[in-house]
Design brief:
This protein has helices at residues 385-393, 413-421, 447-455, 474-485, 506-514, 533-546; strands at residues 6-8, 11-12, 19-20, 24-26, 32-36, 42-48, 52-59, 66-71, 76-80, 91-98, 101-108, 115-124, 141-143, 148-154, 157-158, 162-169, 173-181, 192-198, 203-210, 214-220, 223-231, 233-234, 238-249, 267-268, 274-281, 291-297, 301-309, 313-319, 331-333, 338-345, 348-356, 362-372. It is mainly beta. The strands form eight sheets. Strands 3-2-6-11-8-9 form a six-stranded antiparallel beta sheet, with no helix packed on it. Strands 13-16-21-18-19 form a five-stranded mixed beta sheet, with no helix packed on it. A hairpin with a 6-residue loop joins strand 2 and strand 3.
Length: 548
């Protein structure tokens, strides 16, 4: 066994006069003997050259002494104590993992205690993952996500002991944490507390009153965090606990940040994007009771908010820029798991507060979508609002000067190529020179985009005509999308009843189907039917999603 050198200094502080005792080397196996008096306190200085598990044995008859272990700055680390009714009334044996360093060992007792005591120690190899001291961030023990750790906290009655673990979160995601007092550990109603802070000491969560078993789920950004476990009040000299975690990576673009618990740190709520979030509550033990979102309107608009919950939905609170609830329409709730609320708002900055249903405990997942009405004939409830608005947000479709989109009208060929020409990053390779078409003059608004698609070999025209004012058919749409984005077969297609293999658009239609861009209608594709502006928007949106 390795030899640990422990230097021991005995100090006796008397009320009326004092004396100093010369330092003595405390060898392993040697016994310290003392007699406690309310006017005398005995302190020993212990130095470990290496990390070790130190087992102290205190023999004090029925006197009820306590050994308090602290570091060089007098911060309490552990205590060795017993209650009178403990099984062994003559001695107390207790072990603690200690890092290399210097420690103070104080032998103390209540004023009514008298009698001799002896104190010895033995050293051995470290056991487990809890190594003291770990009461400061600089002393934190490393913790690996997914592992189960066991630890011990020391002190009878009101304790000031706690353990800190350092954990690295590799990317944005959800951490599920489970903590409990281990079998045989008795803690009263206050139990353990567990909290997490980041490098800036900002509190991420706090789980209170851990007794038999407690858990929580929380969203954390990538970075360094510190898990702190504290013992409040215990009936035992040493209280044991375990905690474990699991980690689920999440897409930060569709999830709340996890930092939006206050209005000052509200997440930005973008139009036409569905955000996922959750609240987690364990009553008084832990509560993440609300989430905040912020949005800005550049002009007056009609806005719809759609919220859905897995269990039961609470309410949406609408706040102005100063954080005050709107005097009109400031509250929306539902008896179901779905809220749909429409508000007509002036230009400005607003906040939305999401509240869970009262009395719901545990994990409560929800989603929240904001839809701003851009086109007067495409309300937020429109079947294809999502796709039409998504293209409008990218500047691909801009509607008409009167504020309409005309979703049910057949789309003209000229508009198709104007839409496509506005796609950011789209590159067309020229393979031929533009020729003259009788119905497509240089002055035509769609001349430039149609010229580019002709020179790339994507469209050919019909004889001496380009037919810019003609309606586009669904078959033509399939050919244009496949050639524009160089789509290939991806698995199997679909046998549409009205598109046989001799159809000139058959292969293009099959490519769209194999990529999930089209599913047809009642087993048909209707290749010769004109395609509407709304359906072309749907096909184009799906295509852009496929090629991301």
């Amino acid at each position: 066994m390795r030899r640990w050198v422990i230097m021991a200094f005995g100090f006796f502080a008397f009320a009326m006069y004092g004396q100093n005792v010369q330092a003595a080397e405390w060898q392993q196996g040697e016994v310290f003997t003392g007699l406690f008096d309310e006017k005398v306190k005995s302190t020993h200085v212990l130095t470990l050259e290496e990390d070790a598990r130190v087992t102290f044995t205190l023999r004090d008859g029925k006197s009820g002494y306590t050994v308090i272990l602290s570091n060089s700055t007098k911060q309490r680390i552990a205590s060795i104590a017993r209650k009178p009714e403990a099984g062994n009334k003559e001695s107390t044996v207790q072990s603690v993992n200690l890092k290399a360093g210097t420690y103070n060992v104080l032998v103390s007792a209540y004023f009514y205690n008298r009698g001799d005591y002896t104190l010895t120690y033995e050293t051995s190899q470290i056991e487990g993952t809890d190594v003291e001291p770990n009461n400061e961030k600089s002393e934190a023990n490393p913790y690996k996500l997914g592992d189960t750790y066991e630890g011990a906290l020391y002190g009878m009655g009101i304790s000031s002991d706690y353990d800190i673990y350092k954990v690295e979160i590799p990317r944005f995601g959800k951490v599920k944490l489970h903590a409990q007092a281990t079998e045989g550990t008795t803690v009263n109603s206050f139990g353990f507390d567990m909290e997490a802070v980041n490098e800036e000491n900002a509190n991420m969560f706090k789980l209170k009153n851990i007794r038999d078993s407690n858990e929580l789920e929380v969203l954390l950004q990538p970075g360094t965090y510190y898990f702190k476990i504290k013992l409040n009040v215990s009936d035992q000299a040493i209280a044991h606990y375990t905690f474990s975690t699991s980690f689920e990576p999440l897409d930060e673009h569709v999830w709340e940040s996890g930092r939006n618990l206050q209005i000052a740190s509200a997440d930005v709520l973008a139009n036409n994007i569905t955000y996922r979030g959750f609240l987690y509550s364990r009553g008084v033990n832990y509560s993440q009771s609300n989430d905040y979102y912020k949005f800005t309107l550049v002009k007056d608009a009609k806005v719809m908010f759609i919220a859905n919950a897995q269990k039961s939905l609470g309410a949406l609170i609408f706040l102005d820029e100063k954080g005050s609830q709107l005097s009109t329409g400031g509250y929306a709730t539902s008896d179901t798991r779905n809220i749909v609320a429409t508000r007509v708002l002036e230009a400005g900055t607003y906040y939305v507060e999401y509240l869970p249903a009262f009395g719901v405990e545990g994990y409560e997942e929800y989603d929240l979508t904001m839809r701003i009405e851009r086109f007067s004939d495409v309300p937020a409830t429109h079947m294809y609002y999502k796709q039409i608005e998504a293209l409008a947000q990218q500047g691909i479709n801009k509607g008409y000067p009167d504020g309409k989109f005309l979703p049910n009208e057949a789309i003209k060929r000229k508009h198709v190529f104007v839409f496509l020409s506005r796609i950011e990053g789209l590159e067309l390779t020229k393979i031929r020179t533009m020729k003259t078409f009788k119905d497509l003059k240089l002055s035509h608004p769609a001349y430039a985009p149609m010229k580019a698609f002709y020179e790339a070999g994507i469209i050919d025209g019909s004889g001496s005509n380009m037919n810019p004012e003609s309606n586009l058919t669904r078959g033509q749409m399939a050919k244009i999308l496949v050639n524009t984005f160089d789509l290939k077969m991806k698995g199997e297609g679909f046998a549409f009843r009205d598109v046989n293999s001799s159809n000139g658009f058959h292969n293009y239609i099959q490519i769209l189907a194999s990529n999930g861009i089209t599913i047809g209608s009642n087993g048909k594709f209707m290749p010769n039917e004109p395609i509407t502006r709304q359906h072309f928007s749907v096909f184009l949106h799906r295509t852009l999603e496929v090629i991301k």
